[in-house]
Write a structure and sequence with these properties.
- This protein is mainly β.
- 4% of the residues lie in helices and 42% in strands.
- It contains six helices and 118 strands.
- The two termini are 94 Å apart.
Length: 1580
C-alpha cells in the first residue's frame, strides 16, 4: 500500500491536501473447489466462491455454461432442494474494478434412483451356446449394485456363469436346467433405495455350438491416480471344461491381475506405461478347433500440470510487447485457453493477442484497456487447471471521460452518478460529498456503492442526500475529478390506502386513496380493477372525488375484484390495492340427492353440492320436506354450513318424502334448491294398536265390536285390514281369529257365541308388511238368554175352594242362561162361556185428539163368562168411506191409541171377542177431526212381511216387544198387532232415545220365539250439508261438511260415516270410513292418484245411522305412475334391437313421456356407457336401438312420467348371435346395373333350425351404424335385386346379409365392398346429347325469328288492335298448360319481373293430370311458387308498358272467373303440392294419382280441350300406373332427388312385385306411406 499526497492547482480553488488510495488488489481465489461432490436428492446444497481482492467484489454463477445469476455481491449459490436436474458442472466468476477471474469448475453429482424402464420379456438360447442376458435398464446415479436372481435364488459367478462389468448375465454352455425366470435387484448404495425388475424368462433349446467370444474387451480410458481398471472377456465353448482364456498386451503375454477364470484382467493404480492394446484369446484344449481372440485399447490419461506459470503481477508500458508464460503437460497433451477478465480471448477478433507455441500469450502494442486479469486454463480429458496474473499498463494519467451530471431523484429510489475513467494503471475511484468520503476501494458506507464502472450507486436515496457529489480518479500519474448536484424530492405516497371492503349487493361502496406529496409536483389519480383501468366517465355508477376517493353505487357481483389506486407524478408513483367483496343471497345448493339410508331404519341420506355462497360465509342450511306431496315444511333449520350431507331420521314408513334446501348467510336466505327425487320408505307393520275399542253385547250369542284405526303416524303403510281375536275370559283356551280384509270396516259382530258368557277381545291392524300391535284386552258379556230347561217336579194341590198351591224345583243354574228374575204360572179351568156383550159407545176426549192419532175409550160389556181376548176397532173416513178394520188385536183394556191421517174426520165402532166368539159392534162414536200435521218424532212405524212358515196353526197376530235402552235400567213394553196387518206404529215413544225391538208370532196355542233384536232411534234425521272436496295430494282428498240442522239431529251426533267409491265403479270400489267424533272434516288417504271419487256422508248417533248426503265428486292430484306393464324385445341382431313397452297399469295422471336407460352389465372394451333416452308424450311405445355391441348383455330400465317419474320396469337382453341361430352367410358381392343393385351371397350354417328368411342390413360407409334395409327375403334366395331409389344418391354404402331361423337373427356376413348409390345417367342426360339438342333448338329459333321479321315487314302498316297493344291469342291446343279459360294474355306480361329481372311466369298444370315430366320446366319455375301458408292472387294485365315493367304477372280481375286456376288448385293442397317444387335429395314415391270426374263437381266452368300428351307423358291406359322399377308397397330408406309429392287417388291396381318387401325403418318412411301406429327409430 502506498499513499500519494499532491497539491492540485485549479483555477478559482484553494490548495487542499487529498489522500488517494492507489493500491487496488485484483481478485484471487483463496481456495479451489473439489473436482466432484456427491449429494442426495432433496438435500440442501451451498456452493461458495472463496475469493478476495479490492472491494467491491461481484460474483456470478454458471451451470453447464449457462448463467444462473447476474453479477452481485452474493458469493454463495443456494439450492434449497436438490433433484437430478441440478447435476452438472458449476463454476463462479469473480470481478472487481481491476478485473475478473473464472473459478475451476466442480462437478455436482446427485444420487437418485428411478424405476426399471422395461417390462417382462422372453429370451431363448440354443443348448450349449452362451446366453447373454442384459440387465434391465434403470436410471440411477451412481450406478447401482446389481444382484441377479433365478426363481428367487441369488446367482453367484461360477465357471459357467459370469456377470459382466455392465451387469450383463452370461451363462456359458447352457443346459436345460438353466431355463427359468430371472430378475435383478438394484441397490443404490448412496441413498439406500432398491428396486426389483420385471422377470426375464429364459428358455434353452438343445443345439451344439462352437467356441465363441461372448463378451469382448472394450476400449477403456482411465485417469492416473485411479485405484484400478478392469478389462473383461467372456468366451463360450463345449465342452466348457476345456476352454482356456489368455491375455496379451501389445503381443506380450500377461500373467498377473487375472481373475474370474481369466475372464477379467485388473490393473492396479494404472500409469501411463500401462496404456496399450490388450487382447484376449479363447482356446479349446485338446481340440483342432481354431482359437478365437478379441482386443481393445487401454488409454491411461494424466491430468494437466503447469510446467511454466506467469507471475501474479505484471507491469508493462504503453505500446510495448509483453509475453505472459503458460505451459502445461499431461496425457493427452492439454489444450491452452486464455481469458481476460473472465472472457475468452479470441486472437482472430483481437489480432494484438497471439497464443505462442507451447501456450504462452503475447500481447502487442499495449493499450490502457489491456490492463486487467489474464487467466490461463490447461484442459484435457483428465481435467483442467488454471493460473492467472494481473497485467498493469502504466504511465497514463487518469482522465474522467464521462463525469456525473446534475440529477433529480425521488426519496427512496436509487440513483447512479456516473464516472467513467481512463488511465494506466487503471485509476482508483473515490466519491466524496463535501469532505466526507462515501465510497472507494477501501471505504464503503451504507447505501453508497462503488460500481465496477466507477459510478456511484445511492440506494435508497434520502432527503438528506441532496448536495454536491465529487468523483476523483487517481493513479500513479495523477488525479482527475468531476462534480454534480443531486436534488431529492419528497416521494409521492399513498398514506390513506383503500381498505378491503364488503358490502351488500345494491348498496354503495366507498374506497379512499389519500396521498402526501412534494408541494412542487402535480399528482394524478386513476383506479384499476383487476389490472384494467376504470373509465369513470363511462360508468354512471362510479364517481371519482378530487381527493381520489372512488364511489360505487348499486353494487353487484360484477363489481367484485381487486381495486388498485394508482397515483402518478414526477415525484414518484405509488399504488395500493384493496379487495371489494359484494355480498348477496347465496345460491341454491346444487344437485341434491336423497336415498334410503343403508345404516339406519326410517332414515334418508340427503347429499348436495355447495354452490356460490354469495361472497359471504354460510351461516346455516335450512332443510324443508314435503311428505306425501303435502305443502313444504321446515324440517331442520340449523344445518352446519360445512355440511354437504345429512341423515334425516324419525321418518314414517310407507310415506314418500321430497326435500329441498336453501343456504343462509349474513345477507339472508337464498333460493331453494331443486327438489330431490321423491323417496318412499318401505312399509312396516303398524306400530300402534287400533284406538277406542268398544264392545257391547247385542244378543245372547253376539257381541258388537267397534274401533278406530291406529293413529296415522303409526300405520306405517296402507292398511289392508284388521285381525280380531277373542276367547273366553280367564280360561286357558286358544284365541279365535277373525280377519277383516277391508281397512274401512271398523265394526264386527261376533256371532255364534255362548249365551251369557264373558269374552276378552283384542284388535290389531295389518298392512302389506305384516301384523301390528294388538289393543288392550276388552271384556264383554253376551246378553241373557231364555232358560233352556223348565222347572222340575211341578205339583198342584187345592188349598180351598178358591185357591190352588203350585210347587216346583228350580232348574239347574247353568241352564238358566242369565239371572233368574221369576216364574210364570199358567193354568186352565172350565166354565160355561157365552159371547161377550157389545161395549158402550166409544168416546174420544178432545184433549187426546192429535194430527195422527186419537185416544179411543169405551166401557166393556159382559164378557160372557169367558175372558175377552181382544177388541176389534173399525173406522171410516167421513163423509162417505166404508167401514174398515183398523185393528183386530187391541188388548182387552178399554182404551187404545188409534193411528190416523192428519186433518181428517172419522167415526169409530168396537166389538169384543172372547173364546166363544164376537160381540155385536158398539154404537158409532161421534165424528171427530184430527189436527193438522205437525212434526211428531215420538212414533216409530215397523214394517214386517207376512210369514206363513212355521206358524204351526192359525195365525192370530204379532206381538212387538220393545224397550228403551238405558244403562241403569231396562223396562219392557209389548204391543200386539192383528194378523191382517203388515205394519204397526209404536207411539208414545220418547224423543232422542234408543229402543230395542223384537217381534214374535202367536197362534191359538201360544206365542213363538222372538226375532233377533233391532235397535232404532226415535226422531227425524237429515243428512250433513254442504259437502265439499279439496284435492290435497295424489293419494288424499280433504272432505268437509256442515252438520245436519240442529232440529234434525235427533240427539247428540256421535260421528260420521263417509262412503266413497271410484266414479262409475261403485259396486267394486265402495269403501267406508267411520269417524267416531262429531268432526266436520276428514282426510281420505291411500287413494289412487288422478282418479275421480264420489263421496257421500251420513251422521250417526246413539240410535244409528242417518241418511246419506247426495254424492259429491272430487279428483285426486297426479302422482307418480306405476311401472310400465311390460317390456318386450324384437328383431334382435348383433348390434340392434327393437324395444317396446306397455302403458302403466295405473297412470295416476297424464303420461308426459317415458325414460329408457340401458347399459352393459360388463364394460365393453373397458368402457361402461350408460345411455338415457327420453320419449316425449304418451306414445310411441317403442324404440329402435342401433349402437349395441354383439354378444353383450344389456340391462334396460323404463319408467313413465307424469309430473315425476314412477318406478322402473327392468329386463336384460343379450345381443346376438344367440345359441342355435344361423351362422354368417358367405361374404356378399354386388352386381351393379344402371339404377339397381343385386346382392349375392352364399348360404351359411343354418343353426339348430332351418333358415326361415334373410334380411339385408346397410350403412353409409362413414356412419358405422347398421340398419335393416330389406327383410323377409325368401329362405332359398342367394341374391336380391332392389332399386337404388331407396338409397341416398352419391353416398357410399356397405351391405351385409343375416340369416333368420326360429332361434332368432344369426351372425351377419362380412360387409360387402363399399359401393356408391349413383345411378348411371341415360344417354339423353349426357352433356353431349343436351348440347346437340340445344344447337338444333337454337337453329330452329333463328329460323323462326327470321320468318317473323320477314312477315312483320310485309304487314308493317296493318291495322293495330283497339287497345293499342300487340295482342296474341294463345292457341289452346298449343299451350294447354299456360291458359285454362281461353284468356288473352299480353305478350309482355307473359314474363314476370322478379328482383329486377324478367323471368317466365310459372306454367299452370292441366286439371286432368297434374304430372310433370319436363324436369327443366318444373325446376325453373318452382322458385316462384309461394310457401304453403302464402296466398296466390292474379292481377290485371291490362296495364301500360311502364306499369307492366314494375308489376309481377298481372291478370285482369274482370276476366277472373269463379273456377279460376288459383281457386281450383290452391283450394286443394294436393294440387298445390303437385305443382310445388320438391327439395333436392328427397324422394316422394308417387303413391297416388288424381283424376277428376264430371259427376263430382256438378257443372263447373267449361275447360278447354286437352291436346294429346307428348310421347314421354302419354299413358297407354287411363288407369294410373306406378313408376317402373318401384314395386307396390315398397318403402324407401332414402328419398332420391327429383320425385313428386303424392296426390290422393285410389291405389294402383298393379299386382304386387315379386321382389320382397323393403323394410321401412321409422326414420326413413316414404312420404306416401303411413307412419307406424306407435314408435320411432332412435339412433343413439
Amino acid at each position: 500500500m502506498f499513499t500519494l499526497e499532491a497539491l492540485l492547482d485549479r483555477p478559482g480553488e484553494t490548495h487542499s491536501k487529498v489522500s488517494l488510495f492507489a493500491d487496488d488488489v485484483p481478485p484471487y481465489f483463496k481456495t479451489e473447489p473439489v473436482r466432484s461432490q456427491l449429494h442426495l436428492e432433496r438435500n440442501r446444497l451451498v456452493l461458495t466462491c472463496m475469493a478476495e481482492g479490492s472491494w467491491p467484489l461481484e460474483f456470478k454463477w454458471i451451470h453447464n455454461n449457462t448463467e444462473l445469476t447476474r453479477f452481485s455481491l452474493e458469493y454463495r449459490y443456494l439450492i434449497p432442494s436438490l433433484d437430478r436436474s441440478h447435476a452438472g458442472f458449476y463454476r463462479c466468476i469473480v470481478r472487481n474494478r481491476v478485473g475478473a477471474l473464472l473459478q475451476r469448475r466442480t462437478e455436482v453429482q446427485v444420487a437418485f434412483m428411478g424405476s426399471f424402464e422395461e417390462g417382462e420379456r422372453n429370451q431363448s438360447v440354443s443348448q450349449g451356446e452362451g446366453a447373454v442376458v442384459p440387465a434391465p435398464r434403470i436410471r440411477s446415479f451412481p450406478q447401482p449394485q446389481v444382484t441377479w436372481y433365478k426363481d428367487g435364488h441369488k446367482i453367484p459367478p461360477t465357471s459357467r456363469i459370469a456377470i459382466t462389468l455392465d451387469n450383463t448375465l452370461v451363462i456359458l454352455s447352457t443346459v436345460a436346467p438353466d431355463a427359468g425366470r430371472y430378475y435383478v435387484q438394484a441397490v443404490n448404495d448412496k441413498n439406500g433405495e432398491n428396486k426389483t425388475s420385471q422377470p426375464i424368462t429364459l428358455s434353452v433349446e438343445t443345439d451344439p455350438i462352437a467356441p465363441t467370444i461372448i463378451i469382448s474387451p472394450r476400449n477403456t480410458s482411465v485417469v492416473t491416480g485411479t485405484s484400478e481398471v478392469t478389462m473383461e472377456c467372456v468366451a463360450n465353448a463345449r465342452p466348457l471344461i476345456k476352454l482356456s482364456i489368455s491375455w496379451r498386451k501389445n503381443g506380450v503375454l500377461v500373467s498377473s491381475g487375472l481373475s474370474d477364470y481369466n475372464r477379467r484382467l485388473t490393473i492396479l493404480s494404472p500409469v501411463v506405461s500401462d496404456a496399450g492394446y490388450y487382447e484376449c484369446e479363447a482356446v479349446l484344449r485338446s481340440s483342432s478347433v481354431p482359437s478365437v481372440s478379441a482386443g481393445a485399447y487401454l488409454h491411461v490419461l494424466e491430468p494437466p500440470q503447469f510446467i511454466k506459470e506467469p507471475d501474479k503481477h505484471i507491469t508493462a508500458e504503453m505500446e510495448k510487447v509483453v509475453d505472459i508464460p503458460c505451459q502445461a503437460r499431461g496425457v493427452p497433451q492439454p489444450d491452452i485457453v486464455w481469458y481476460k477478465d473472465a472472457l475468452p480471448i479470441d486472437p482472430v477478433k483481437t489480432p494484438r493477442y497471439r497464443v505462442l507455441v507451447g501456450g504462452s500469450l503475447q500481447v502487442n502494442g499495449l493499450l490502457p484497456d489491456d490492463t486487467g486479469m489474464f487467466q490461463c486454463f490447461a484442459r484435457n480429458m483428465a481435467g483442467e487447471v488454471q493460473t492467472n496474473t494481473y497485467l498493469a499498463v502504466t504511465s497514463i494519467a487518469p482522465n474522467i471521460t464521462a463525469g456525473p451530471s446534475d440529477s433529480t431523484v425521488i426519496d427512496g429510489m436509487s440513483v447512479i452518478l456516473h464516472c467513467e475513467t481512463s488511465g494506466a494503471p487503471r485509476p482508483a475511484i473515490t466519491w466524496q460529498k463535501g469532505e466526507r468520503v462515501l465510497a472507494s476501494g477501501s471505504v464503503q458506507l451504507p447505501r453508497f456503492t462503488l460500481l465496477e464502472s466507477g459510478s456511484l450507486l445511492i440506494s435508497p436515496s434520502h432527503i438528506s442526500d441532496a448536495g454536491t457529489y465529487t468523483c476523483m480518479a487517481s493513479n500513479s500519474r495523477g488525479i482527475d475529478e468531476a462534480s454534480a448536484d443531486l436534488i431529492v424530492w419528497a416521494r409521492t405516497r399513498i398514506t390513506t390506502p383503500p381498505q378491503d371492503l364488503s358490502v351488500i349487493k345494491g348498496t354503495k361502496a366507498v374506497m379512499t386513496c389519500g396521498v402526501t406529496h412534494d408541494p412542487s409536483v402535480i399528482i394524478r389519480h386513476f383506479w384499476e380493477k383487476d389490472g384494467s383501468v376504470i373509465n369513470v366517465q363511462s360508468v354512471p355508477r362510479m364517481q371519482l372525488s378530487a381527493d381520489g376517493t372512488l364511489h360505487i353505487s348499486q353494487t353487484w357481483s360484477g363489481d367484485i375484484g381487486t381495486y388498485t389506486c394508482r397515483v402518478t407524478s414526477v415525484g414518484g408513483n405509488d399504488s395500493r390495492s384493496a379487495h371489494l367483496r359484494v355480498r348477496q343471497l347465496p345460491h341454491a345448493p346444487e344437485n341434491p340427492t336423497a336415498v334410503l339410508s343403508k345404516s339406519e331404519k326410517r332414515a334418508i341420506d340427503l347429499a348436495w353440492a355447495k354452490s356460490f355462497d354469495g361472497n359471504s360465509p354460510l351461516i346455516r342450511y335450512i332443510l324443508e320436506v314435503s311428505e306425501n306431496n303435502a305443502p313444504w315444511a321446515i324440517l331442520q333449520a340449523n344445518i352446519e354450513p360445512e355440511s354437504t350431507a345429512v341423515t334425516v331420521n324419525g321418518l314414517i314408513p310407507a310415506r314418500s318424502y321430497q326435500f329441498r334446501l336453501c343456504a343462509v348467510n349474513d345477507v339472508g336466505k337464498g333460493q331453494f334448491s331443486k327438489e330431490t327425487e321423491r323417496v318412499s320408505l318401505p312399509e312396516e307393520p303398524p306400530s300402534a294398536s287400533p284406538q277406542n275399542v268398544i264392545t257391547s253385547g247385542r244378543t245372547n250369542q253376539s257381541i258388537m265390536i267397534q274401533w278406530q284405526p291406529p293413529q296415522e303416524s303409526h300405520q306405517n303403510g296402507i292398511l289392508r285390514g284388521y285381525i280380531v281375536r277373542y276367547r273366553l275370559t280367564g280360561l286357558p283356551v286358544d284365541y279365535q281369529i277373525k280377519n277383516i280384509s277391508s281397512p274401512d270396516v271398523t265394526t264386527l259382530l261376533l256371532e255364534d257365541l255362548i249365551i251369557w258368557t264373558n269374552y276378552e277381545i283384542e284388535v290389531a291392524a295389518y298392512n302389506g308388511a305384516g301384523l301390528g300391535v294388538f289393543s288392550h284386552k276388552v271384556t264383554e258379556w253376551t246378553l241373557q238368554g231364555v232358560p233352556t230347561i223348565a222347572p222340575g217336579n211341578v205339583k198342584a194341590e187345592a188349598v180351598n175352594s178358591t185357591a190352588i198351591r203350585f210347587t216346583w224345583n228350580a232348574p239347574n243354574p247353568q241352564f238358566i242362561n242369565g239371572i233368574n228374575q221369576g216364574y210364570k204360572v199358567s193354568f186352565l179351568f172350565h166354565l160355561l162361556p157365552a159371547r161377550p156383550q157389545p161395549t158402550s159407545r166409544p168416546l174420544v176426549p178432545q184433549k187426546h185428539v192429535q194430527p195422527r192419532q186419537v185416544l179411543l175409550s169405551w166401557e166393556p160389556g159382559s164378557d160372557g163368562l169367558s175372558p175377552v181376548r181382544y177388541y176389534t176397532v173399525q173406522l171410516r173416513e167421513l163423509p162417505d168411506k166404508n167401514w174398515t178394520v183398523h185393528s183386530a188385536s187391541v188388548n182387552h183394556e178399554a182404551a187404545s191409541y188409534i193411528v190416523l191421517k192428519p186433518f181428517t174426520s172419522y167415526q169409530f165402532r168396537i166389538k169384543a171377542t172372547n173364546d166363544i166368539g164376537d160381540s155385536e159392534y158398539s154404537e158409532e162414536s161421534e165424528a171427530i177431526t184430527t189436527l193438522q200435521d205437525g212434526k211428531d218424532s215420538t212414533k216409530y212405524r215397523i214394517f214386517f212381511p207376512p210369514s206363513e212358515e212355521k206358524i204351526n196353526g192359525i195365525l192370530l197376530g204379532f206381538r212387538i216387544h220393545y224397550r228403551e235402552l238405558l244403562y241403569d235400567r231396562l223396562r219392557n213394553y209389548i204391543h200386539t198387532v192383528n194378523s191382517a196387518f203388515t205394519w204397526a206404529d209404536l207411539t208414545e215413544l220418547s224423543k232422542h232415545k234408543r229402543y230395542e225391538i223384537r217381534m214374535s208370532v202367536y197362534n191359538t196355542v201360544g206365542e213363538g220365539p222372538t226375532s233377533p233384536p233391532q235397535e232404532v232411534f226415535v226422531g227425524e234425521a237429515a243428512p250433513p250439508q254442504n259437502v265439499a272436496i279439496q284435492s290435497a295430494t295424489a293419494t288424499q282428498l280433504d272432505v268437509t261438511w256442515d252438520p245436519p240442522p240442529v232440529n234434525a239431529q235427533n240427539g247428540d251426533i256421535q260421528g260420521y260415516k263417509i262412503y266413497f267409491w271410484e266414479f262409475q265403479r261403485k259396486n267394486g270400489t265402495e269403501r267406508l270410513r267411520t269417524l267416531f267424533m262429531p268432526e266436520a272434516g276428514v282426510k281420505l288417504k291411500n287413494l289412487t292418484g288422478y282418479t275421480n271419487y264420489m263421496i257421500s256422508v251420513a251422521a250417526f248417533n246413539a240410535a244409528g245411522d242417518g241418511p246419506r248426503s247426495s254424492p259429491t265428486r272430487g279428483r285426486t292430484q297426479q302422482a307418480a305412475p306405476s311401472a310400465p306393464s311390460f317390456i318386450h324385445f324384437s328383431e334382435l341382431t348383433t348390434t340392434s334391437v327393437n324395444v317396446s313397452w306397455g302403458e302403466p297399469t295405473f297412470p295416476n295422471g297424464i303420461i308426459e313421456g317415458y325414460r329408457l336407460i340401458y347399459e352393459p352389465l360388463t364394460p365393453v372394451e373397458g368402457v361402461s356407457k350408460t345411455v338415457t333416452v327420453d320419449v316425449k308424450g304418451s306414445g310411441p311405445l317403442w324404440l329402435k336401438l342401433r349402437d349395441l355391441a354383439d354378444g353383450v348383455t344389456y340391462h334396460f330400465r323404463i319408467r313413465a312420467k307424469t309430473f315425476i317419474y314412477g318406478p322402473e320396469v327392468e329386463a336384460n337382453i343379450t345381443t346376438g348371435p344367440g345359441e342355435g341361430t344361423p351362422g354368417p352367410p358367405g361374404e356378399p358381392f354386388i352386381t351393379r346395373y344402371s339404377s339397381a343393385l343385386t346382392i349375392h351371397w352364399a348360404s351359411g350354417d343354418p343353426g339348430r333350425a332351418p333358415i326361415s328368411r334373410y334380411v339385408i342390413e346397410a350403412r353409409p360407409s362413414d356412419e358405422g351404424l347398421w340398419d335393416i334395409l330389406i327383410k323377409d327375403i325368401p329362405k332359398d334366395a342367394t341374391s336380391h335385386t332392389f332399386n337404388m331409389d331407396i338409397l341416398k344418391q352419391g353416398v357410399s354404402y356397405d351391405f351385409r346379409v343375416i340369416g333368420v331361423n326360429d332361434y332368432g337373427y344369426g351372425s351377419p356376413s362380412l360387409p360387402s365392398p363399399s359401393i356408391s348409390a349413383q345411378k348411371v345417367a341415360p344417354f339423353y342426360e349426357e352433356w353431349w346429347f343436351l348440347v346437340v339438342v340445344a344447337l338444333v333448338g337454337l337453329i330452329f329459333i333463328l329460323l323462326l325469328v327470321f320468318i317473323l321479321i320477314i312477315r312483320g315487314q310485309s304487314k308493317k302498316y296493318a291495322k293495330k288492335t283497339e287497345s293499342g297493344e300487340n295482342m296474341v291469342s294463345l292457341d289452346e291446343g298449343r299451350f294447354p298448360a299456360l291458359e285454362l279459360n281461353n284468356r288473352r294474355l299480353s305478350v309482355k306480361n307473359s314474363f314476370c319481373r322478379k328482383n329486377g329481372v324478367y323471368t317466365r311466369s310459372p306454367p299452370r298444370p292441366s286439371p286432368g293430370s297434374l304430372h310433370y315430366s319436363d324436369e327443366d320446366l318444373s325446376t325453373k319455375y318452382n322458385d316462384l311458387i309461394p310457401a304453403e301458408s302464402s296466398s296466390l292472387t292474379e292481377k290485371t294485365s291490362e296495364k301500360s308498358d311502364s306499369q307492366g315493367s314494375d308489376s309481377e304477372c298481372e291478370v285482369d280481375p274482370n276476366r277472373q272467373k269463379t273456377h279460376s286456376f288459383v281457386n281450383h288448385y290452391i283450394s286443394d293442397p294436393t294440387y298445390y303440392n303437385s305443382w310445388r317444387r320438391q327439395q333436392k335429395g328427397i324422394s316422394r314415391a308417387q303413391a297416388y294419382n288424381y283424376s277428376e270426374s264430371e259427376s263430382e263437381h256438378g257443372a263447373p266452368p267449361p275447360l278447354p280441350p286437352l291436346p294429346p300428351l307428348p310421347p314421354q307423358l302419354s299413358s297407354p291406359s287411363p288407369q294410373p300406373q306406378q313408376a317402373q322399377g318401384q314395386p307396390q308397397g315398397q318403402g324407401t330408406l332414402f328419398r332420391p332427388k327429383g320425385s313428386r309429392t303424392p296426390t290422393p287417388s285410389q291405389q294402383s291396381s298393379n299386382p304386387p312385385s315379386q321382389h320382397s318387401t323393403l323394410y321401412r325403418p321409422p326414420s326413413s318412411l316414404a312420404p306416401g306411406s303411413r307412419a307406424p301406429i306407435a314408435g320411432f327409430s332412435s339412433f343413439v
